[in-house]
Amino acid sequence: MELRNHKFYFAGEAMDFAVFSDGRWRAKYMDSIALPISRNRVDIYEIEPGADTQWVVVRQRDCDANKFRVFVRKRGELLEKKPRRLSKTLKKEILQKFPKLGEEFELPWAA
User: Fold this and answer.
1) Pseudo-torsion of CA 101, 102, 103, 107, nearest 10°?
2) Model-level pTM?
3) Torsions phi, psi for 108 (to 5 deg)
4) How far apart are CA 34 and CA 24, in angstroms?
5) Helix runs in 6-87, H state only
6) What are the pLDDT digits (tens) for 78-109?
7) Could you give the CA distance from residue 17 to residue 83 in angstroms, rounded to a whole number?
């Protein structure tokens, strides 16, 4: 699935996301939803990469669980790719640019 079809959520300390990329990008606010159980709200964003962006890694945090999504440009679109299926060259490039990704978040493909 393409990056522009994904939504990312922010609800303070409980839920957030971080974006790592080789190019420019911006997070565009889309909407906010109220949680029925509490007075908290969840903000919804989409990520808009720049035309020069070749890859984007998004770390989604929900409480203490981290989930990583990787998007790689192919024929003009940033398509989701399983982290374990990335080329060694791309893995190396990502970790050279953001070495803390491998250290702090213990990526399954960082070794």
Assistant:
1) 100
2) 0.85
3) -65, -20
4) 31
5) none
6) 999 988 888 889 988 998 999 887 765 555 55
7) 17
